[in-house]
Amino acid sequence: MTAWLSFLVVFLCSWSLRDLVVEACTCVPIHPQDAFCNSDIVIRAKVVGKKLMKDGPFGTMRYTVKQMKMYRGFQIMPHVQYIYTEASESLCGVKLEVNKYQYLITGRVYEGKVYTGLCNWYEKWDRLTLSQRKGLNHRYPLGCGCKIRPCYYLPCFATSKNECIWTDMLSNFGHSGYQAKHYACIQRVEGYCSWYRGWAPPDKTIINATDP
């Protein structure tokens, strides 16, 4: 009986640990603009190789990338050759395909290395909307002084002039919502921020209160 109980305890502990690891990666939804503004590095790149590095309990995956364009991070690292991520998806590791797609990749720099993960914004380039691509080039940098506040339950109100209320949470999740795909929160005259959409470059001299 003692041996059976010992086996049962070990089994339950192992199962609980495995379950904990699988569910360990939980990310808070973030608008693409915030993902851009909060990242050290934002690039468009193609993965041309990968190598499993013996770092940590599960290892670290090192992706070799061919950088197509840099949108943020010139002063920190003008050219990115490697992207590092956890090898395990349960620890928020990103799985990128080699020699298939161009990706938008955001990440942070630590000790001279660029790290990314499931909680960063990464996407196949051809899946980005035209508004998101324009945001990377022009609009998102104009809004880094703004605050995008998620709205999970109605009613939601801005508490300061530099806030934009993000309502995608009411019907969608994360980057898949309409605001995330088509809007940027732009800083206007006197520090006011408001949502912007359209094809022409935004006029920073006026307040555009157009709400999605």
Flag low-confidence runs.
1-22, 200-212
Structural class: alpha+beta
What does the radius of gyration come to? Answer: 21 Å
The CATH architecture of the largest domain is Beta Barrel
* Arithmetic mean pLDDT: 82
Helix content: 10-25%
CATH fold assignment of the largest domain: OB fold (Dihydrolipoamide Acetyltransferase, E2P)
**Number of β-strand runs:** 10
Global outline: globular
Query: What is the CATH level 1 assignment of the largest domain?
Result: Mainly Beta
**Chain oligomer state:** single chain
Distance between the termini: 65 Å
Largest sheet: 6 strands, antiparallel
The ordered string of helix (H) and strand (E) elements is HHEEEEEEHEEHEE
Domain module tally = 2
Number of helices: 4
Q: Approximately how much beta-strand content do the residues carry?
A: 25-35%
GO cellular component, one term: extracellular matrix
Signal peptide: 1-16
Binding site for Zn(2+): 25
Domain NTR: 25-144
Could you walk me through the main structural features you see in this protein, from its secondary elements to its overall organization?
Pfam families: TIMP (PF00965). The structure is a single chain. The chain is α+β, with helices and mostly antiparallel strands and 212 residues long. The longest helix has 21 residues, at 2-22. The chain folds into two domains: 32-126, OB fold (Dihydrolipoamide Acetyltransferase, E2P), CATH 2.40.50; 129-197, Alpha-Beta Complex (Tissue inhibitor of metalloproteinase-1. Chain B, domain 1). The radius of gyration is 21 Å and the shape is globular. It contains four helices and ten strands. A hairpin with a 2-residue loop joins strand 4 (102-110) and strand 5. The strands form three sheets. Strands 1, 2, 3, 4, 5 and 6 form a six-stranded antiparallel sheet that branches. It has helices at residues 2-22, 32-37, 130-142, 178-182, and strands at residues 41-53, 60-72, 82-86, 102-110, 113-115, 122-124, 147-150, 163-166, 184-187, 193-196.
